[in-house]
Design a protein that fits this description.
The complex is a heterodimer of chains A (about 160) and B (about 550).
Chain A: E1 2-5, E2 8-11, E3 14-16, E4 27-31, H1 32-37, H2 39-44, E5 50-54, H3 60-63, E6 72-77, H4 84-95, E7 101-106, H5 110-118, E8 123-124, H6 132-136
Parallel strand pairs in A: 3-4, 4-5, 5-6, 6-7, 7-8
Antiparallel strand pairs in A: 1-2, 1-8
Chain B: H1 6-27, H2 33-41, E1 45-47, E2 52-56, E3 62-64, H3 65-78, E4 82-85, E5 91-96, H4 101-110, E6 127-128, H5 143-153, E7 168-171, E8 185-191, E9 197-203, E10 215-222, H6 226-240, H7 251-258, H8 260-272, H9 283-292, H10 306-314, H11 316-325, E11 326-328, E12 334-339, E13 350-352, H12 353-366, E14 370-373, E15 379-385, H13 389-398, E16 413-414, H14 429-438, H15 442-448, E17 453-456, E18 470-477, E19 480-487, E20 499-500, H16 507-524, H17 531-538, H18 541-548
Classes of the chains: A alpha/beta (about 160), B alpha+beta (about 550).
The complex binds iron/sulfur cluster.
Chain lengths: ~160, ~550
């Protein structure tokens, strides 16, 4: 599957692993509940790549103490109207200093990518029925932003010059 | 007023280019209506009963004459020659074609206007005191802070997909004219015990299905924390507000469920670890913003004007207009004038293209080229020299905008209702028109004193019926339009929510029900007593008894 990563279209080398399923070789993304129940096993194999995914009703604080274990955090948008993951993303980046991959999954559409990117997402699983090339244009939707976020720490009033 | 620089202009240009592409993708079918819907809503474009409705933002209700002229042009060229001033100080067009939208937005951008965040589950147009900057009871002009909040909330990346819409109001006066208690979040400029000016923060007010009077979240925060503190409020709401039921998604429900103390604790906790210390407002930025709203160079004028006094003595109609529609200005020799948009035969809040142009001319000639919109759906010229009131009065009469009824029974707030709105249960405009027709005796209306009558066409309460001293709510009874009557609401410092009187009325009955309510008031009123005070003293019973006596 192709995804957008750091503003480029790349082949995805991560596997989303369902809760009861066996862990495959390679890089895996598991749910919060699996992480909580299988913690030791997962830490044992983290050299091959460990990621965690949060549902939209799971919060940054749920994983904040464990962030050192994850190379990737995936935040799900069950529908693009559910905006909780924007807050989770900013808190992970700006409060907890998370620097690994922050991936948007679920109902990821072109017209929200600009905001997601501002909140700290750097990888996007664009919805399968949508053009990923079209989605790539979203990063340039705006050239001016008023408020600070994960991408820009200063509000516009200090940048007006 | 605030002036755009190249950054603000660039943002609108970017926005309009983006929306143009979204409209094109919709017109070619690349976007489904379901996907386009939230995108157009982010730009104030609703699909209504007959056509698209476009809601243009009038930030904190302030307009220049040039902007109003452009709004008139848009009404003429792209609509059917009129617009509707709303209870959020905005302007709506009712007959917009999707294909025209990109050009309309470009025309708005030419005069530093837009339709950004006038709908959708985001932070909406910030509203404020209609007399900001000129009121006598003001501690400080709230508009610089409203503009600071406007910029911060515009395309906020974290808060554009909130559980539900979010409305913010500000006032700097001691008397509340902005209905702050009915907003999701509100700021009142106040002094703390040591005399420092800051904000009292109010949260969780609102109308709709579950009307709630807002609660004090913080007695005082310093000005420099305005934005960072607001971010913390929004963050708690965005993370924890309900998303499973749209009727329970407003912040008022979260605040009620948690209790205001617990909500405040969560906000404080986020704020203590704020992720945006950079949002702290420094004095230089406050100064820069205040400069845009600095008082004009007023002339030294006497407190009174002999010719005006003589006319007040001689001409009763002028006196009535002066009493109701002219408000004391902080500057001696000046007056604030309210232009009534409540004339017989016109939907409350509607203005034609010609009227808009005429008002723009009046603003230029009489009031430094600026005007305001009010949530009571009137217009305001804020800086009129006292000596010119007779001339202005004459000009307003010719425009049917001198109805001397501001703040009285027939200064009705009224939503578009079933004549336009796809959510409506009943028509509201004809009810307002019938009432304005029925109560056309100006002496009678004046004698009733301050009285707020509000009409909504459905429970969404755009017509603020909960906050009316008399409220009328359109309901659907087996496919027929009926009206529920409420008494005792108030949008002011004594904010309260009206109580439902009893079974609903048909459209014909509602007018006579109001007549009876007024009869009881006149019979039981103490000298000079306001309607709402009389109701509070007597309770619902005597009104109810009379209204349903031969029902
Ligand atoms: S109150 Fe109801 S009928 Fe009136 S404008 Fe709002 S949604 Fe429409």
């Amino acid at each position: 599957m192709q995804i957008i990563k750091k503003r480029r279209i790349v082949e995805d080398d991560w596997h989303h692993v369902e809760d009861g399923a066996e862990l495959p070789e390679g890089k895996v993304i598991v749910s919060l509940s699996r992480w909580q129940s299988d913690r030791e096993t997962l830490i044992g194999r983290r050299n091959s790549g460990l990621g965690i995914r949060l549902a939209s009703n799971e919060h940054a604080d749920d994983i904040a103490p464990d962030l050192e274990h994850f190379e990737l955090v995936a935040l799900n948008f069950p529908t693009f109207r559910d905006g909780r993951a924007y807050t989770t993303a900013r808190l992970l980046r700006e409060r907890h200093g998370y620097q690994g991959e922050l991936r948007a999954t679920g109902d990821v559409l072109r017209d929200q990518i600009f905001f997601m990117h501002r909140c700290g997402f750097d990888a996007f699983e664009v919805r399968a029925d949508r053009s990923i090339d079209e989605a790539l244009k979203a990063f340039d939707d705006f050239s001016v932003t008023y408020q600070p976020a994960a991408d820009e720490k200063q509000p516009l009033w200090r940048r007006r010059g | 007023m605030y002036q755009y620089d190249q950054f603000d202009h660039q943002m609108l240009a970017d926005r309009n280019r983006q929306f143009r592409s979204q409209v094109e993708r919709r017109l070619t079918g690349a976007l489904t209506e379901e996907e386009f819907r939230p995108l157009r809503l982010m730009n104030g474009l609703y699909l209504q009963l007959h056509a698209y409705m476009l809601r243009v933002a009038v930030p904190y209700g302030l307009l220049s004459s040039a902007q109003l002229r452009q709004l008139a042009m848009i009404a003429r060229k792209y609509d059917r020659g009129y617009g509707h001033f709303t209870t959020r100080q905005n302007l709506q067009y009712n007959w917009i074609r999707l294909e025209d939208m990109p050009d309309i937005l470009d025309a708005l951008a030419e005069v530093e206007m837009h339709a950004i965040q006038t709908s959708g589950n985001c932070i909406r147009n910030i509203s404020t005191d209609e007399f900001a900057g000129v009121a006598r009871d003001e501690i400080e002009d709230p508009r610089p802070y409203a503009e600071i909040l406007r910029q911060w909330s515009t395309f906020h990346p974290e808060f554009s997909y909130l559980p539900r819409k979010f409305k913010i109001a500000l006032t700097g006066a001691t008397r509340d004219r902005a209905a702050v208690a009915f907003h999701d979040l509100a700021f009142r400029i106040v002094r703390n015990d040591s005399g420092e000016v800051g904000f009292q923060v109010i949260v969780g007010g609102g109308m709709g299905r579950t009307p709630v009077v807002g609660k004090v979240l913080k007695e005082w925060i310093p000005k420099r924390h305005l934005l960072a503190y607001s971010e913390s409020v929004m963050r708690v709401y965005n993370g924890y507000g309900r998303r499973d039921n749209i009727y329970k998604a407003r912040i008022k429900i979260l605040v009620n469920d948690l209790g205001v103390e617990e909500f405040a604790r969560q906000v404080d906790e986020d704020f203590a670890r704020t992720i945006t210390p950079e949002l702290e407002l420094e004095e230089a930025e406050l100064e820069r913003m205040r400069a845009f709203f600095a008082p004009p160079a007023y002339r030294e004028l006497p407190e009174r004007d002999a010719a005006v006094d003589a006319l007040l003595e001689k001409d009763k109609r002028f006196r009535m207009w002066f009493e109701r529609n002219v408000v004391a200005h902080k500057q001696p020799g000046y007056a604030i004038v309210v232009l009534s948009l409540k004339s017989p035969g016109v939907a409350p809040g509607d203005a034609t293209d010609d009227q808009m142009e005429a008002v723009a001319r009046l603003a230029d000639e009489f009031s430094l080229g600026l005007l305001r919109t009010t949530f009571k759906q009137n217009l305001v010229l804020s800086d009129v020299e006292l000596s010119r009131l007779p001339e202005l009065w004459g000009r307003l009469k010719a425009l049917s905008m001198a109805s001397p009824t501001v703040g009285t029974l027939t200064d009705i707030i009224c939503c578009p209702g079933l004549d336009y709105c796809s959510l409506a249960n009943a028509r509201s405009i004809p009810v307002a028109e019938k009432l304005i027709d029925r109560f056309d005796d100006l002496d009678f209306i004046h004698d009733l004193g301050d009285l707020r009558l509000n009409i909504s066409g459905c429970i969404n309460a755009c017509g603020h019926h909960h906050a009316g001293n008399i409220g009328i709510l359109g309901v659907d009874k087996k496919g027929e339009e009926f009206y529920q009557l409420t008494l005792g609401g108030s949008p002011e410092d004594d904010a309260s929510i009206g109580k439902i009187m009893g079974p609903a009325f048909s459209q014909d009955e509602i007018v006579s029900a109001i007549e009876k309510v007024i009869e009881v008031f006149l019979a039981r009123r103490e000298p000079e007593e306001r309607f709402v005070d009389c109701y509070r003293r007597l309770g619902m019973e005597p009104f109810k008894e009379r209204v349903y006596a031969d029902h």
